[in-house]
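Obj: model holo form, ligand = coenzyme A.
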Amino acid sequence: MTFTLTPSAQTHSDDCSVEDLLDLSFGLGRRTKTSYRLREGSRPVEGLSQVIRDSELGLAGAISYWPLVIGKTFAPAILLGPLAVHPARQNLGIGRALMNFTLERAKANGHKLVLLVGDAPYYERVGFQKLPAGLLQLPGPVDPARFLFLELVPGALKGVSGMVLPPQRQAELSAAFAKPHG
Ligand SMILES: CC(C)(COP(=O)(O)OP(=O)(O)OC[C@H]1O[C@@H](n2cnc3c(N)ncnc32)[C@H](O)[C@@H]1OP(=O)(O)O)[C@@H](O)C(=O)NCCC(=O)NCCS
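Output (holo structure tokens):
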């Protein structure tokens, strides 16, 4: 076996390999996706950027999460993704291992609500569900069938609604609205 299912922390020296893996998995057009608008101006959530190393390929898989703020109540959440597994190592449990490890850690670190845009049949296996239609809006087009949530704490979605944004964008908008007009 050229890898084990034990994730390790992504380091700066992994950054280029992770980008290469994401290009391989999602194609070069990946940055035009709405999920990328949700990462603008943010750093990944501390402790949740994890990789599976592979003695042959370098990296077999990678996952990261990004901070979000929702609606007028500024409800916090985290965005899962990108999650990518090298084409030569798919269907061997790497994606699930990366999710299980990081979702458990996210919960232990006090995060309550996770959002993602992705294939429901895959993510439903770890408990994600489709969001109720119209409850949350994203800063770009999204197929509602792919807009998913997971409550790490039961009831975390209750009372949450509105636009989902990266914290910096939300702060810029709040500042713009707070300015006196004229
Ligand atoms: C999607 C991805 C992360 C899954 O990782 P993985 O390590 O290959 O998956 P796992 O080994 O954890 O799980 C494999 C199981 O999930 C299923 N599965 C894999 N991708 C799936 C998808 N997109 N939709 C539904 N089921 C999927 C497999 O059929 C397999 O099912 P089985 O257990 O019944 O045999 C990986 O295939 C990948 O990086 N793909 C390229 C990017 C992509 O297509 N992303 C789409 C999801 S947003």
